[in-house]
Design a protein that fits this description.
The protein is of the alpha+beta class. It has seven helices and four strands, in the order H-H-H-H-H-E-E-H-E-E-H. The protein has one domain. Helix 2 crosses helix 3, helix 4 packs antiparallel against helix 5 and helix 5 runs parallel beside helix 6. Keywords: Signal.
Length: 221
């Protein structure tokens, strides 16, 4: 009986150690979880990120959000802004075409890719006895090579049929984006050390999406 208990305890210890080792991630992998969560709107990635962060930050510092809903809300936000500039009757007729256009626009951003250029551990000058990992990455997105031929005209006087055609043509153009734009940024991951293990996190990952959004939308106008 004692031998059986000893084996059981040893198995439990081994399982705990294996579980712990599975939660020790490299900074490149942690960055990937942040990028896929906040740029690519991937719910599976944010679940995996939460299961990682909870080990050293606790449940209160995980992310409670549905990224598919966040994606749809962003499309709806752009759609409402665009339609608010149109006469009410015209806006009502063009709503579907506007939604389709902004869905493609946001989806092209969502399909962005990245390459990690370098990762290095440096001292955090704002934190006492704290280091961080600087992840230098290059993000790229697909956009149309030229949209100068698309002119909508006076938005206050244009008729619904013309706007619908403009939006439909522009949507098809963005679906066939043929140009790649790229930008290089740095994303900092704070290092949290527990014994021999190091965990990584960022307290404001929305900045990752904000910077890339700014770059993306500047290059499609």
């Amino acid at each position: 009986m004692k031998i059986f208990k000893a084996i059981l305890v040893a198995m439990m210890i081994l399982c705990i150690q294996n579980l712990k080792s599975q939660n020790i991630l490299k900074p490149e992998t942690v960055f990937s979880l942040y990028f896929n969560s906040f740029v690519k709107y991937d719910d599976d990635s944010v679940k995996e990120l939460n299961s990682y962060l909870i080990n050293f930050l606790g449940k209160d510092n995980t992310y409670r959000m549905n990224l598919r809903d966040a994606y749809n809300e962003r499309v709806e936000y752009f759609t409402k802004i665009f339609l608010s500039n149109l006469p009410p009757d015209v806006a009502s007729e063009c709503k579907k075409e506007a939604q389709d256009y902004f869905n493609v626009l946001v989806n092209n951003f969502k399909e962005g890719k990245y390459i990690i250029k370098s990762v290095k551990s440096v001292h955090n000058k704002y934190g006492q006895n704290e280091d961080l990992s600087e992840v230098v990455y290059e993000a790229s997105f697909k956009v149309p090579s030229d949209i100068s031929g698309f002119e909508m005209g006076n938005i206050k006087t244009i008729d619904a049929g013309t706007i619908k055609k403009y939006l439909t043509d522009l949507t098809d153009h963005f679906k066939n984006s043929d140009k790649t734009i790229s930008v290089e940024h740095t994303f900092n991951l704070y290092e949290v050390k527990y014994g021999r293990d190091t965990y990584y996190w960022n307290g404001g990952p929305q900045e990752l999406a904000w910077k890339l959004n700014e770059f993306y939308f500047k290059n499609i106008n």
